[in-house]
Amino acid sequence: MPIFSKNKHKTVQNSAHEQLFLGEDYDVRLKWFKTTFQNSDDITVHELTTNQTRCGIVFLQGMVDQQIFDDQVLKYIVSPGFASSRKDLFHKILDLQSISTMCTSIVADIQEAADSVLEGKIIIFFEGDSRMLVIPLTSFEKRAVSETTNENVIRGPREAFVEDIQTNITLIRRKIKSPDLKMEQLVVGRYTKTKVTIGYIQGVCKEELITDIKQRINQLEIDGVLEGSYIEECIEQFPLSPFPQTQKTERPDVAAAALLEGRAVLFVDGTPIPLLVPVTMYMFLQSAEDYYQRFFLTSFIRLLRYTYLLVSLLFPSFYIAITTFHPEMIPTTLLISVAASRDNVPFPGLVEAFIMELAFEGLREAGIRTPKAIGQAIGVLGALVIGQAAVQAGIVSAPMVIIVSITGIASFIIPGYDLAFTIRLLRFPIMILAGTFGIFGLMIGCILIYIHVVNLHSFGVPYLSPTAPLRPADLKDVFIRAPWWFMKRRPSFVGDSNSNRLTIKKSRPEDDED
Amino acid sequence: MIMIIILFFLFIFGYEWAYLKKKSRKRRTFWIVFCIMGMSFSYCIATIVFKNMPSPNTLIQFLFTPIQQKILGKVD
Amino acid sequence: MRALKWFMVMSTLLLTGCWSRVEINDCAFVTAMYVDKSVKGQMEVTLAFPLPNRLVPGTVGGSASPGNPYTQVSRTGKTITEAYQKMQIDLPRRISWGHTRIIVVSEEMAKEGIGHILEFIARDPKLNINNAVLVAPGKAKDIENLVPAFERFPSEIVREFTQEMVTLYTTPKDFLETENGDMIVGYLTKGKEKMVSEQGKEAMWVGTDGMALFHDYKMVGKIGLKEGRGALWLRNSIKNASVSIISPTDKKPISLLILRSKTKIRPSKNEPFTFDVYVTAEDDISESYSNINLTNAKNIFQLEKIAEKEIKDRISEAFKASKGMKADVFQFGAYLSWYKPKIWKAVKEDWPTVYHDKVKLNIHVDLHIKRPGAENNPIWIKEINS
Amino acid sequence: MKAAQISQNQLLLFLILYFYSTLVGFSASNLIHISQYDTILVLCISGLTAGIYAYFTIKLANRRPNEFFFHYGKDIFPQWIHILFMGFYFFSFLHTSAFVLREYEDFIVQTYLGGTPNWAVGGLLGMVVAVTARSGIQTLFRTAQGLFFLILIADVSNTIFIGKELKWDRWMAFITNHSGHGIFAGTYTTIPFFGEVIVLVFIFPYLTQKNKTLKTVFWAIVLGLLLIIVNFVFLLLLFGPNLASHITYPMLEMVRYIRIADFIENLDPFLISIWSTTVYLKISLLFFLSVQILAQFFRLKDHRPLTFSLAAVMVALSLQMSGGSAALTSFYTNSWATYSYFIEGIPILYLLMDTLKRFIKKRSAKNNKGM
């Protein structure tokens, strides 16, 4: 792909190796390759002679398309009529690069050549010339673009990112066809040499953001990057915070929308889930579908999500606080039934809640980890069945099962699942506070979380913007979703503020209202 | 109770020490911070040990109650 | 940073404990308090508790439960606190006041004064000052023995009386906000009656009957049912009431159902101790035995006038009764103090006498019969005017 | 110290909550006791006076808008007097925060957490305050910004639900019932609440768009007054002055009067916990200022390492300051107001001195020129 050849030299800059030039001697280089790739039997060093020139071909088996290589490259090089002399051969291959594959390049640095081999490229070096030809015929087994598994929508595109970074970038490119969409590639990982690509739209995204991200990534000296989270955890501003500071998505449309808002996308090779930065807490409560459905419905659903966010965080603690400290808050009739059902439960409310919550969390975790064949048996339903049995056995009370189930379901309503994890985690300390100080403790817990969140920044953007600090103009897309024709400006807290994102040239056709 | 205070102060001692070290502050800062911490500690302990320590309220009341009574007339 | 914060919170929690925690199933919720007079100047406090353990879910309302799902406990003491602390010692559960909804004082106790009961209610932080105060004849604690045919607990029945405004919903707050402790409180009656729900056995039955009048937190008298209705009008808490009037044409009764009513009291502009009472009400006709043509606007106007007169009579009777006892239970004094503070200050000291001698009412009733109900004229009236 | 940024909007919302917090919660009983139906008038007069305070404070601060009071103060007064005053302020802010904390502890323990010792409540809240103060004044103001709407919603719903319980007939008393002494005494004890607006002189360097500050403060006073007055009017209409002045926390009783259609019997713990965030904000600001003064006194780079030590002092002071709430009340009613006048008068003293100095300088400059 032509776009990437442009960034090629950057790859070299970023690799930590020193350069090594071994000159024109064929045998020296051959020996170097052989020693470097000793005991790596999947790396083939093939030797052949053409036009009285010995040449070596180094490649990684299984990572190159040997068929095309044979047909398009090898066949021509070894064919008698290809070159008249050694000089002609060098001229044709190395100067003109008249090999009929794309993106060939020339390197002289043998270290770089070796790196290229590991990336799945084919290296050809010749006797009598220090230059080496790099043919990118990388081809390996990869998963096809398939449907989303975690972020499902009713209306909207279905495709999801895959592990291969090139495919992922293509998915974005297909949505945003602009030369302003930049994809800067870095390489991270001493051994894995993982490609990390920062995508952003020039002119929409703030320059400082990109330099900031690049600086943070470049500071990394890590053995390997197997998943985006390696990078995520290392470049966060508040590494000790339980709150996620990057957004993850498996949907190209979400990534594209983020790019259009002026945010940056971080693709990590081998990860089907790119990172979107910066992020605010409210973004975790927005799902892709919000923008595809009608805005009234979406606004309602958003408010519902906020409610359930609170439910998921506070409901068990609220129950504990009320039943153990403020029974006067419950209507008398309800109170009596709650008291009746709690009557033969031996544990205090706090312990009871902990038992149930932990059981529920355990079941949920088990549901993810169990092999698919038996996984169906365990699930949320399993939890409810166990809950029912526990009630009958008199270990927990029936209201507690309801509370825990509602809490559990509420945490599934939050679209950003990493925020949902955080909320699940924070629920427990608040439960302890509520069990010790009642609603006062609950409030203290909330204030602590609130202070922390107010303090938090994700790549320079306050985590709670646009509410704290308040930017009224940006509230259009926070608690409700305003209709598209109303959101004329980009949100100012991330991207370049003073730019329109939507202008309707002709005034909207007048609604036929009477 | 005293145990809790001691634990708390041990904790914040460690915490502030780490903080100041991380920010590589001057020796003087260390001295000031830990002197204040020491004074704070002794005050906290004192409030527990000497139950009837004079409180600042008594002083303020001593100074200002007569003035206020002159201004407002005798309230209550 | 974050983890450290949490650690700090945790450490305080682990080091301490849960001081004020009382599990919901370790509480005995007071639903009603009954205060009776006991010997030697002591009082007998009776508290009504629901028994949740007899209300296992699923069998609620079923006859399978071994006994009543409620109970009451009585103890005597010089103060309420003393009495209930005695009770606390004997109870396995902590007494929780948060759900107390009614306070019933026996007539005997009320006559001695309920000031200290109110003091207890106002001081206890958990006890609300908006529960209902009622007076009962005889022993107040007998009220709890009534058979709750419609509700689960006896106290709920009594509470519904005040909620539905069958009788006055007087709260401790109403008492406390007065300067002289003059107030009017609903009065209960007790009786025995054969009840179908109890297989025709005789059972205790509680109803409402008139009002008790208080002066200086002491009960000074009682008014009957009819004056009591007038008092409801004056206290602006009439609801679900009916007014029966006599038809002008053939002296047969017509009943009006009051849908909406509002009472406004204002001191009269000219005379210092005269008050204007404005009553506005909207009614439907609920029953008519008369042959009067209800589709005629003139007739309706006539009926309205009669009904107005009826209400006026009730109100003035209630007022007269309170005047006779020198108890300013409708707080006309307060109105005077809001509107004419100077006059009030002059007579504040001997207000009971002034109230008795000088206060007059101008009652203006404005009643409208809005709709005739689901029928226009009674079916037996065939074309009166034809 | 890197100057944090506080927008005018944040200042506005913060000040409203600041005024609202303790006046409504803890002082309603006493104020109604003194001024009965004149309370509304008293509040208005106090608000007006606070405006005058704010005017002078901002005038002083505007002379050196980007410097801290602690730093430029010694140009106005001799250094040792200035240090004395600052020490005074340090103590007073710490003491006031401890005082408010103590009031809050008593309130919570009294009403909800019967068996919990004061120090647990105070320690917990003190810790939150310390964490807030540690993360800086910007966090504090942002927190206020978010909390404001929550508190507004809670307060408005409170007023809506309580509306039907009120005795509207009483409104006439606001017009007819007056007492001169009540107004005077009430105003005298209420002005210091609003007079705390002088904290502006300490946070002035943090503000953005400084020229708008006076306007903001004016609006904060007006809106804050509105919020407070609505609450007081409702209190008086519901309970009357007699009962309201007998209840320790009339506000609490008012909230308890709400019963929403038998759904939730008493919303009070919920609404009270929302309201108590305002108390937390007030304590945090005062505490932050005292920490800041100490840090500036020792010329430290930032205030952070001092927060926890001082928070411990604050909590200990709050527990130790008086034996029971009777002593606290008598302190509050008998001397707090006068004491506050002394504290709040200091910036005006500085302003006078500064003006005098400038005047003399100008005179002498003129004289020099003339010579």
UniProtKB/TrEMBL annotation, chain A:
Single GO BP term: spore germination
The family this protein is said to belong to: Belongs to the GerABKA family.
A Pfam family hit: GerA
Taxonomic lineage of the native organism: Bacteria, Bacillati, Bacillota, Bacilli, Bacillales
Transmembrane segments: 264-285, 306-325, 375-395, 401-420, 432-453
Location of this chain's protein in the cell: Cell membrane; Membrane
Major subcellular location class: membrane
PANTHER family: LEUCINE ZIPPER PROTEIN 4, SPORE GERMINATION PROTEIN
Membrane topology: Multi-pass membrane protein
Protein name: Spore germination protein
Keyword Transmembrane tagged: yes
Keywords: Membrane, Transmembrane, Transmembrane helix
Annotated GO CC locations: plasma membrane
Record flagged with keyword Transmembrane helix: yes
Automatic annotation (TrEMBL), chain B:
Transmembrane spans: 28-50
UniProtKB keywords: Membrane, Transmembrane, Transmembrane helix
Keyword set includes Transmembrane helix: yes
Protein name: Uncharacterized protein
Species, as recorded: Neobacillus vireti LMG 21834
Lineage: Bacteria, Bacillati, Bacillota, Bacilli, Bacillales
UniProtKB/TrEMBL annotation, chain C:
Keywords for the protein's UniProt record, in alphabetical order: Germination, Lipoprotein, Membrane, Palmitate, Signal
A single GO BP: spore germination
A cellular component term, taken from the record's GO annotations: membrane
InterPro entries linked: GerAC_N, Spore_GerAC-like, Spore_GerAC-like_C, Spore_GerAC_C_sf
Predominant subcellular localization, coarse grouping: membrane
Compartment annotation: Membrane
Transmembrane intervals: none
Family, similarity comment: Belongs to the GerABKC lipoprotein family.
PANTHER family: SPORE GERMINATION PROTEIN B3
Name of the protein: Germination protein, Ger(X)C family
Lineage: Bacteria, Bacillati, Bacillota, Bacilli, Bacillales
From TrEMBL, chain D:
Assigned protein family: Belongs to the amino acid-polyamine-organocation (APC) superfamily. Spore germination protein (SGP) (TC 2.A.3.9) family.
Residue spans crossing the bilayer: 12-34, 40-58, 79-99, 119-137, 144-163, 183-204, 216-239, 279-298, 310-332, 338-356
Domain of life per record: Bacteria
Main location per the UniProt record: membrane
Name the record gives this protein: Spore germination protein
GO cellular component terms given for this protein: membrane
Higher taxonomy: Bacteria, Bacillati, Bacillota, Bacilli, Bacillales
Cellular localization per UniProt: Membrane
Entry keyword set: Germination, Membrane, Transmembrane, Transmembrane helix, Transport
